[in-house]
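for ur thesis appendix - Dynamin family protein. copy paste whatever u need, i formatted it the way the template wanted (i think)
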Amino acid sequence: MFGKYRNLEDDSIDWPGLLSLLEDDDRRAMVQRIYPSESRESFLAAVRRLDLSLASDILASGRQVHSASQLVNWPVVAIAGMLNSGKTSLVATYLSEAGRARTLRGPSNVEGTHRFVLWLPQQWQSDSELFSLLMGRIGDAIGKPPEMLAEDPAAAHQQYNNRGGDVSTLAIPLVATDPGLDEAGIGLLDCPDIVSDEAFGLGSPDIRRDLLGRAATICSAFLVVSSAESSRDATLGDLLRIAADLMPGVPRMLAVNKVRPRQTPDQVFETFTPLAKTHGIETVYAAYDFDVPASRPYIPAASGSAAIGDDEDLFPVFFSVSENPDDNPPAAISEDRLLAALPKRLDRAKLFEKFRIALQSTLRSMIWDRAVSRVDQDADHSRKATQRAQDCLLQASLEFFAHRQVGGEVVELRLHQSKRIIHQLSESFAVTAPWYARWGVRMNAKLRRFVDGAGEMVRRFTPTAMAEKTASEIKDKFRRGEYGSLMTPERLNAAIDRHGGSAALPHWFGEEVDPSMSRLTEASEAAILRFERDDFTQLDPRRLDEAVRQMWSDVPVRKKLVAGLTPLATLLAAFGGVLMIPVDFGTTVIAAASIPELFAAFGMAAMAALWAGGANTRDVGQQAAKQQLVDFHAILCDTFGVERMSKVTPIEVGRVKENLPMSHVIRREAIGPTLPLYQIRDAFRKELQKQLPRGG
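the 3d part is after this line
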């Protein structure tokens, strides 16, 4: 019957469903927190954390979209006609009793409509902000901000009739809401007489036509109300022509009011069909004069019809007329032929559709362009901040675990000379030592079962005086930085500072200023103690014995040290001296040196060169040193509240790229503030794109 039908867009946003996604902090959560603990965070929680007002704006915008998606489904029909044609009475059929009292009806000019009055469902006002936005859109469409129709009937009648107003007031539309339209599912634009002259000083037809043309974007259909005697009235033809010119593409209908029983519905159809064809009228409705008792058979009594009212205030019941008499009253007709069923067959108004799309566009922009981008940027910032912190702590670690040349190039990595490492070296050199190297050393079958403690080992296997002298010399060399490195909390603090700790560790060096660095010193001390306790790295026993045996074989027999001591005695004394370093410096110190550096510190340059020059010997110490480096770095990350490195990290050692292994140290909680790390989950992006297409 109609050229256009209600079109519920497939791209409408399902706000309740979308809100469920935005609130989900479990399976469909937006954020995956990686550090300091693994957890998930919902979209709204993440946005609130960064911008509380933006989260509030998104919720408000979503509610508006939800309200608008329901409310703008109602089409708006412009109802026009000649003076006292009954158009306002037709409007009143859809209104509640209170709404009807506010309409102005009657045969005289003082009861005529001289302002555009837009009646909307009352539900529109349930969201004041949304209603305000809609009023702004209506004002933009008409050209003037709308004015609300007074709740008091007398005041409303004055506005309807423009009493006391002037010509300029005509350009200001009146807006009213009514609960009756909630049930009817329709909005109505009660138009003033479009073709009247200026006799009453209420605006020329040109002004009214211009306003009707602007109002076209508000309307889904145009309904002209006429009397049964006006089929040949030139004024009616002018009105239909104006409607065709101003509202092209909008379904136009004709409602013939107050038909007398002498004219049957099929005759009404026949009478007005030529006019309808000429002006593109899609449907002709008729309503019989209820004041004439003989009209009763032609007034449909179907439930839900708009006729009605009581005996004192009756309203017309319009139905579409058919060319076939058998399809018209008094025969029963289907409810879809009643004018009351019109809203179900009309598309929403262009203005309201644009309004809905604009609201959705605003929500989409808030979520994608502002919120997701903001969280994404912050997640990227957390990743970059973590990388800066990791690099700072790695460079600080390398100051102690890397042996550098003057230009800064790393030539080899240093070993933490723990009891475990020293015992392995001592045992391997003793077990594999040739006969000539054992002179002066009390060797026995219990050589492999060393007693813990530097003093005991030195006492059992080396002359006491020599051990003390060697230990003192080695400690002095380490202290002066001639060989290896000594790590203390203060030195670690300085290393972190040199590598940009204040910028790389903002959670430690933020707004709080600690001139004494006591908090940092405590953290550094805790890291050193923990590494000393948790470092279980050891050299590969088989490869170590092979490397030491090979080195012994390369040492000439004539190589003897002064005072008749053998190389083995000197080595054991030197190793014991390294173990005694913490005795003087305290427990919060780490001595780190490569194996060649140890030999050099012992005064055994030849053995240092032999060890450094052999691929097998060099690799034995470097593999363990790499593990210790990453373990210490992991402990620093834990201590200072930074996520550990999650992938293999390359460093350059001796101009060769070396991949550091992953740490084996158990994770522990930070002892102070933490640097959060998180990312947006791909599953959330896909689900959001599905429910709210970014390019939609």
